[in-house]
Amino acid sequence: MSTSRWSVLGTLSAEPALTRPDLLGAPVAAALKALDPADAAQIGVAEIDPALADTAAFCEAYSSPLEGSANCVVVSGKRSGEIRYAACLVLATTRADVNGFVRTYLDVRKASFAPMEDACEHTGMEYGGITPIGLPEGWPILVDAAVVASPEVVIGSGIRGSKLALPGSVVARLPGVEVVEGLAR
């Protein structure tokens, strides 16, 4: 797949992500450099207006299909005073089953979206740009099987000023990723 033309990016064109570290959050740039070069070469980055980073606004402004976007959310829960985190990547047309699947996975009584400040502090990424690439080591990264089955998806880049496009199959090979059925509803 050429990194310049992605149907999932609508009217945008992308450049190879590794050639534009200025369009990536610092942990994302570091993680991309550490990927298998063949996988990293399949990831494109496109600059966007940071005010349009939220999925609905992005899709409308750039004619990107909503079913081609995947949202990464940070979920947390407590067990014996310890806060446990996980990241969940689901298609934008679905929602992560936070209080069912994720709660059970984390083995906590109640799971919820992590507060914005915590999510940003722990990931080193901007809110609205959090992505499964470059998350803290040891965090479970739960990816719905529908994301992996997608020929191409749009995800965050660690900042609000760009988006990444990549094949769903590459998402499955990212460090820490666990592909699961039933994560999304």
Quickly give the CATH architecture.
Answer: Alpha-Beta Complex
- Note the overall shape: globular
Beta-strand proportion? 15-25%
Task: Using the coordinates shown, work out and report the CATH topology.
Answer: YbaK protein
Alpha carbon gyration radius: 15 Å
Sketch the topology as an H/E string, one letter per element. Answer: EHHEHEEHEHEHEEHE
Q: What do the pLDDT scores average to?
A: 95
Low-confidence stretches: none
Order the strands across the largest sheet as they lie in space: 5-3-4-6-9
The number of distinct structural domains comes to 1
Helix percentage: 25-40%
Structural class comes to alpha+beta
State the fourth-level CATH superfamily. Answer: YbaK/aminoacyl-tRNA synthetase-associated domain
Tell me, what is the CATH class?
Alpha Beta
DSSP helical segment count: 7
Q: What is the number of E strands?
A: 9
Query: What separation lies between the terminal Cα atoms?
Result: 29 Å
Please summarize the sheet with the most strands.
5 strands, mixed
Pfam family, one: tRNA_edit
Domain YbaK/aminoacyl-tRNA synthetase-associated: 50-168
Organism: Pseudonocardia thermophila
InterPro entries: YbaK/aa-tRNA-synt-asso_dom_sf, YbaK/aa-tRNA-synth-assoc-dom
